[in-house]
Structure formats: structure tokens, C-alpha cells
């Protein structure tokens, strides 16, 4: 028995058609949702992701403003650009593509974005809101993972979820979302001895490490759900995730491919957050009665 593939492109198409209707509704009231994307430097992978984000905006009725800067851009100049976008009422979401060149402090940049426009959900305020259950933008990749898990129809409550990787952008926030869904969560990382001991007990495994073949067939339970967040480039130039897909799919129940799994869902959640930002702004502009 091979696993069912969880198709992130198909799920994205489905969700984006509803998002496009919301964007059109806002546009009809002169409030077209707008996302500003700032790219600093020439990292080729970042260029691909940013292009995908801009295209997704165009395809679904959002306005995108792409600002590209040389890698030598100073931190003060970047902070100035963010301040201008914060003050621009026609911009609803601001995304500064990571990673930034070494001379720029990413924390300072993230905290400079107005909370109402932080559609990445990377700020300390969003992180705190996520931890406490308060309203706030949730980070896009973890939200995309949750939607992919939900799409299997398998309940998370009482299930054991094992997350591999503890980044601020994926592992840590995803562990909190899984916890909120009443899963029992194990958060593993590079210093975890015997990773397989944990993953073999998991009903859900999420791999977010950035290293090919981190999760192999001997490390998974039959019937499990496997979500692959990794994006790695192989020697032949092809993309692969953190999971040994060909062999793991022979054991588990559900699995996401790379490409075509988490990547497109990250962008779908970015559209969702940007539209939500625009909807909140539109609601705030309504005359109160
Ligand atoms: N401020 C910020 N926000 C982010 O959301 C952010 C970021 N920085 N830095 C890098 C990561 C990575 N990320 C991806 C987005 C789309 C794909 C994507 O479209 N993937 C396609 C294929 C891409 C390809 O062909 O290379 C797929 O998996 O099917 C992948 C990765 C967003 N990130």
C-alpha cells in the first residue's frame, strides 16, 4: 500500500478561489488588498519564492508592490522604507523576504513592521499572541501545514505529533498550533538523540530541518501523516524535501510532496493574511453607528 499524496497545489487552488472572491469584494469597495514585498540581495532561491508570491497576488486579485534592493542596502535605509509602507494606507501587508544580508539585523527589521501589516506573523507580538491564544496573524508555513493535515480528515485531538526542527518561523509556532488542536506534541531538534525513537511513535510527523533524508522509512509508523517542509536542492538541480519520499510513502498513510506540498500552501496563507489585513482595515474605516 502506498500513501495518499496530499496535494498542496490542489488544496491551494481550492482555497485561493474563495480568497479571490474576498479580494474582489474589497476591490469593489475601493479597498483592493495590497502586499508589499521587499527583497534585498540576489539569493536565487529567494528570487523564485518572491516571484511565486507576486504571481499568486496577481492571479487572485491582490495588488503586489515588489521592491528590490542591492545586497549593500543599509539597515537604516531598509527601516526607512518599512516606515513609509507602514504609513501608506494603500498597503495592507508588508513582507521582508528572509534571509537578509548579514549586516542587517532581522529582528530589528521584523519588529519595525506595523503589527496590523505583519502578514508573515514573525514579530514578537504575533508570537506572543499565538502562545496565549490571542488574535493575531499566524505564521504562513505552520498554518499551511495545519491545513494540509486537516485535509486528510484525520482528527488531531489526542494524536501524537512530532515536529522536527525548532525554528522561530516553522517548528516552534507549528508546535503551538498542534497543541491548540489538542495533539500531544514532541518538538525535536538537532540535539535530540535517537530521532527515530520519537518519530516511530508519531501519528503526525512534520519535518522542517532543511536536510535531505532526515526522515527515512525505518523512522515512521505505518499509516502516519507526514508533512515535509524542507526544500533542498539535489546535485542534479532537482528539489527535494527532508523526507525520503520514495521509501517513506510505502509505509505511511499520507504524505506531502516537494515541490507541490507545503510551498504553495505557505503562499496561500500569505494571501489569506493579507486579505484579512485589508478586511480589518476596511471594517475600521466603516462609520461607527
Ligand atoms: N519573510 C519571509 N516570508 C516567507 O514566507 C519566507 C521567507 N521570508 N523566506 C523563505 C521562506 C520559504 N518560503 C517559500 C515560499 C514558497 C515556496 C514555493 O513556492 N515552493 C514551490 C516550488 C518552489 C521552487 O520551484 O523552487 C513548491 O514547493 O511547490 C517555497 C518556499 C517562504 N519563505
TrEMBL record:
Domain Tetrahydrofolate dehydrogenase/cyclohydrolase NAD(P)-binding: 139-281
Domain Tetrahydrofolate dehydrogenase/cyclohydrolase catalytic stretches: 6-120
Catalytically driven reaction(s): (6R)-5,10-methenyltetrahydrofolate + H2O = (6R)-10-formyltetrahydrofolate + H(+); (6R)-5,10-methylene-5,6,7,8-tetrahydrofolate + NADP(+) = (6R)-5,10-methenyltetrahydrofolate + NADPH
Keyword terms: Amino-acid biosynthesis, Histidine biosynthesis, Hydrolase, Methionine biosynthesis, Multifunctional enzyme, NADP, One-carbon metabolism, Oxidoreductase, Purine biosynthesis
Pathway in which the depicted protein is active: One-carbon metabolism; tetrahydrofolate interconversion
Top-level division of the source organism's lineage: Bacteria
Pfam families: THF_DHG_CYH (PF00763), THF_DHG_CYH_C (PF02882)
UniProt key word Amino-acid biosynthesis: yes
Catalytic activity, EC: 1.5.1.5, 3.5.4.9
Keyword NADP: yes
Residues the record lists as binding NADP(+): 165-167, 231
Family membership: Belongs to the tetrahydrofolate dehydrogenase/cyclohydrolase family.
Subunit structure: Homodimer.
Entry-linked HAMAP family: THF_DHG_CYH (MF_01576)
Protein purpose: Catalyzes the oxidation of 5,10-methylenetetrahydrofolate to 5,10-methenyltetrahydrofolate and then the hydrolysis of 5,10-methenyltetrahydrofolate to 10-formyltetrahydrofolate.
Name of this chain's protein: Bifunctional protein FolD
Species annotation: Verminephrobacter aporrectodeae subsp. tuberculatae
